[in-house]
Amino acid sequence: MARWFESNGEQWTDDVVQSVKERVDRGDIAHVVVATTTGKTGALLIEALGGTYLDVVCVTHHAGFKGGDEIEVDPKHAKAIAAGGGTMLTGSHALSGVGRSISGTFGGTTAVEVIAHTLRMFGQGTKVCVEIAVMAADAGLIPTDRDVICVGGTGRGADTAVVLKAAHANRIFEMKLRETLCRPIG
To answer: How far apart are the first and last CA of the chain?
Structure first.
């Protein structure tokens, strides 16, 4: 049963983790993808799911997201993710990337940005879940022929979890959102 939160934000992270654990317990999911800026949410999820058969992919911001060439992952969280068997993925964001540079430089909006804004109608976390699914699929870290769980949020932490059938960027419209485990409604 889906959980609905009255607002977005990191205060729902523990509830999201619990929703993911409950869904994983059904036994038909082998992959979880989680957005994690500093690595904290990824490490927390891996710890909570410890000892399971899952492949957990932790997707970070790309290098230079905040400027410079830095990656925002805290080394202690990266170490915990690796120790827990998680995989870290750092790459260009599927729903912004070059498109954001084009609109920032020349004005206007790209088609990819329209997709991102449309997904945000369901919440920032839903947009993030779709985006990280594409990124993980394109990196060959999750299958596109089975359902996976994706966890996203608004800013820090997690406030959204969905079950979806992923797709590669060149086939994004083949993605299927199967279940909402939890997300904000406000």
So the answer is: 19
- Cβ atoms of 8 and 159 within 8 Å: the answer is yes
The string of pLDDT tens digits covering residues 156-175 is 899 999 999 999 999 999 99
E strand segments, the chain? 3-5, 31-35, 55-60, 87-90, 147-152, 160-165, 176-184
C-alpha dihedral over 113, 118, 121, 125, to 10 degrees? -60
User: What is the topology classification, in CATH, of domain 3-184?
Assistant: Pyruvate Kinase; Chain: A, domain 1 (3.40.1380)
Model confidence pLDDT, tens digit, residues 40-90: 999 999 999 986 778 999 999 877 677 777 887 889 999 999 999 999 999
Rounded CA-CA distance 112/138 in Å is: 16
Tokens linked to 57:
């992919």
